[in-house]
């Protein structure tokens, strides 16, 4: 078995493959910007569709929608930056995939079970283990499971090709391996086991207790509450006064909430914070939320011995990054690339 395929198998089983972000809710998908099967780019005659870009952009867009209720210039900047990054990633992917075709003629192969393990990992870690959420996102993107399987296979192949071309990097030193493991340990933990304790204030878009409230006035109130808490106001008292959920009487206090009980895009935002942070207001279809993080309990991370070979591979890739960028830039210049967005 050749080296890329061995590396792929390890990658899929360890969960170190670069992951997509959690799926976006229906209202957060940038559907209007991507007509179905529209062309985003062509690479040597091969088409990259807009809905493929949209599928990869959707989870990032969902987080930005939640994080920037008023949208604005920073929202637009980050959304455009994310779209450009994704499009370039897909263009580079098409360029590199041509390398695998030559390897296939020499017997290289990617076993289907490796792809399935990677899909299982993404469902477990990015969709809170929910097949339903995963299938819903596929449906919104007008993508079949076979289509997603093909996309995942291509992603793994591209990573393997890069590893094959730049396998002559200097061997990782023990200190480099330990440093790399320490830097990624948290990101490769089992996030489905994450828990969090926090206080929350929820303001619905339409408040039955205040018929004059509008979405705009509720957002303004949420912004004021967040500012008051940051200035020292008691979160619990504000929750009892303003929050409209089942926990308002307890000051919005919720203890040891599993990550899997939260919307994926919200979880991605608040689990990225630290104890004492005031997060929000965050937006969803129902209203606006302000959170004060109490304590985060991360899920277990694999030991270094479990993922050592993959950590070594990450170190090698970093050492060869300059050579890789020079190589891929040459490939870009030689390719026929036509961007449509």
TrEMBL record:
Protein name: Peptidylprolyl isomerase
Top-level taxon in the UniProt lineage: Bacteria
Database matches in InterPro entries: PPIase_dom_sf, PPIase_PpiC, PrsA_foldase, Trigger_fact/SurA_dom_sf
PROSITE patterns, sorted: PPIC_PPIASE_2 (PS50198)
Known EC number: 5.2.1.8
Gene Ontology MF annotations: peptidyl-prolyl cis-trans isomerase activity
Species: Luteolibacter rhizosphaerae
UniProt KW keywords: Isomerase, Rotamase, Signal
Pfam families associated with the record: Rotamase_3, SurA_N_3
Domain PpiC: 193-295
Signal sequence bounds: 1-19
């Amino acid at each position: 078995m050749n080296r890329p395929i061995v590396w792929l198998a390890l990658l899929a089983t360890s969960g170190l493959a670069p992951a997509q972000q959690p799926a976006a809710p229906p209202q957060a998908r940038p559907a209007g910007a991507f007509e179905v099967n529209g062309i985003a780019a062509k690479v040597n005659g091969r088409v990259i569709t807009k809905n493929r870009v949209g599928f990869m952009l959707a989870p990032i867009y969902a987080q930005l929608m939640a994080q920037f209720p008023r949208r604005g210039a920073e929202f637009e900047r980050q959304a455009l930056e994310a779209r450009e990054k994704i499009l370039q990633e897909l263009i580079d992917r098409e360029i590199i995939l041509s390398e695998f075709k030559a390897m296939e003629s020499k017997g290289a192969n990617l076993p289907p079970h490796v792809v399935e393990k990677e899909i299982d990992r993404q469902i477990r870690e990015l969709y809170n283990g929910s097949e339903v959420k995963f299938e819903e996102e596929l449906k919104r993107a007008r993508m079949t499971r076979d289509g997603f399987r093909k996309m995942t296979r291509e992603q793994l192949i591209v990573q393997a090709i890069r590893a094959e071309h730049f396998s002559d990097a200097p061997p990782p030193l023990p200190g480099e391996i330990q440093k790399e493991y320490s830097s990624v340990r948290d990101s490769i933990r089992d996030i489905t086991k994450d828990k969090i304790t926090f206080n929350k204030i929820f303001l619905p878009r339409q408040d039955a207790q205040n018929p004059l409230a509008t979405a705009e006035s509720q957002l303004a109130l949420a912004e004021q509450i967040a500012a008051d808490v940051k200035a020292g106001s008691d979160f619990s008292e504000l929750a009892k006064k303003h929050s409209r959920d089942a926990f308002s009487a307890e000051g919005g206090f919720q203890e040891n909430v599993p990550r899997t009980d939260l919307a994926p895009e919200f979880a991605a935002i608040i689990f990225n914070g630290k104890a004492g942070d005031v997060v929000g207001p965050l937006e969803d279809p129902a209203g606006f939320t302000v959170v004060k993080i109490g304590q985060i309990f991360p899920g277990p991370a694999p030991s270094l011995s479990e993922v050592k070979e993959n950590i070594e591979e990450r170190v090698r890739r970093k050492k060869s990054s300059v050579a890789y960028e020079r190589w891929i830039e040459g490939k870009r210049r030689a390719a026929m690339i036509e961007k449509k967005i």
